[in-house]
């Protein structure tokens, strides 16, 4: 990516989740505060109130990160970037094999030092580079004021010989796309975790990869996403 700053962030994904406690009526939870219009949080809360297993994502313990690679003949003049969300919110109903999650795009980070180190990136952008990248990403690429959320709907969670398969619909930048996502789903000591990776393209969502100088300096269309979602039983009390 350019040192002048640009990155594309997509979040999505993907799948995740958390069990319940009985109650006569649901109370508001952080998972629905500031949620997108039409987000089906109430449906999950009502299911938990009826005694069904429902999990709520813990955003502070979850992570979605996207590796954005530079390209073109002048790629050596730029940087790769890591875009991340530590604000995934939502619910999972394991009995139904469904989940609904969302990410507020304004909360995305760019180039957290620990994530750059884990990704073994070979350059180091300046603070100015990073600030410019984040500003351009939100304003010019994702148009976050117009499309403030990434939405993730999981319609199937199916066990496979090597883990699980998630049928995921991601809505970003006003465009929805479906993916089959391999994942590792574990439930231990009352906690659910869902981890996996997804390769996809900016152009899948109607986003044109950034390019200047006739393509000599550009952002690669393909993105690499990894996620670790942790969730706990939804506590619904009267």
The structural domain count equals 1
Overall mean confidence score, pLDDT: 83
- Broad shape: elongated
The share of residues in helices is 10-25%
Multimerization status: single chain
Number of contiguous helices: 3
Uncertain runs are 1-32
Series of H and E elements: HEEEEEEHHEEEEEE
> According to CATH, what is the class?
Mainly Beta
**CATH fold description:** Lipocalin
| CATH homolog superfamily | Lipid/polyisoprenoid-binding, YceI-like
Query: Radius of gyration, rounded?
Result: 18 Å
- Overall CATH architecture: Beta Barrel
End-to-end C-alpha gap: 51 Å
* DSSP strand content: 35-45%
List the defining traits of the structure above.
Lipocalin, mainly beta, elongated, 238 residues, single chain
Structure description:
It contains 3 helices and 12 strands; from the N terminus they run αββββββααββββββ. It is mainly beta and 238 residues long. The protein has a single domain, classed as Beta Barrel (Lipocalin). Strands 1, 2, 3, 4, 5, 6, 7, 8, 9, 10, 11 and 12 form a 12-stranded antiparallel beta sheet that branches. A hairpin with a 2-residue loop joins β8 and β9 (175-188). It starts with 40 loop residues before the first helix and ends in a 5-residue tail after the last strand. Mean pLDDT is 83; it is low at 1-32.
Write the layout of secondary structure elements.
Blueprint: H1 41-49, E1 55-57, E2 63-71, E3 81-85, E4 89-93, E5 98-104, E6 109-110, H2 113-119, H3 127-141, E7 149-160, E8 163-172, E9 175-188, E10 191-201, E11 211-212, E12 217-233
């Amino acid at each position: 990516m350019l040192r002048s700053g640009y990155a594309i962030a997509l979040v999505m994904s993907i799948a995740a989740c958390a069990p319940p406690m009985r109650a006569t009526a649901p109370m508001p939870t952080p998972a629905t505060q500031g949620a997108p219009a039409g987000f089906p949080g109430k449906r999950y809360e009502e299911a938990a109130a009826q005694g069904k297993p429902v999990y709520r994502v813990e955003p502070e313990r979850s992570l979605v990160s996207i590796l954005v690679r530079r390209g073109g003949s002048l790629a050596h003049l730029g940087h790769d970037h890591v875009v991340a969300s530590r604000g995934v919110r939502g619910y999972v109903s394991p009995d139904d094999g469904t989940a609904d999650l969302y990410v507020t795009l304004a909360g995305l980070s760019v180039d957290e030092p620990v994530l750059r180190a884990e990704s073994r990136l070979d350059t180091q952008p300046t603070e100015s580079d990073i600030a410019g990248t984040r500003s351009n990403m939100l304003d010019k690429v994702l148009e976050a004021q117009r499309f403030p959320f990434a939405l993730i709907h999981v319609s199937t969670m199916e066990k496979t010989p090597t883990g699980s398969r998630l049928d995921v619909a991601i809505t970003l930048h006003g465009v929805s796309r479906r993916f089959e996502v391999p994942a590792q789903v574990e439930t231990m000591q009352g906690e659910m975790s869902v981890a996996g990776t997804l390769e996809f393209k900016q152009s899948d969502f109607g986003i044109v990869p950034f390019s200047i100088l006739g393509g000599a300096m550009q952002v690669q269309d393909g993105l690499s996403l990894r996620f670790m979602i942790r969730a706990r039983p939804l506590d619904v009390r009267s």
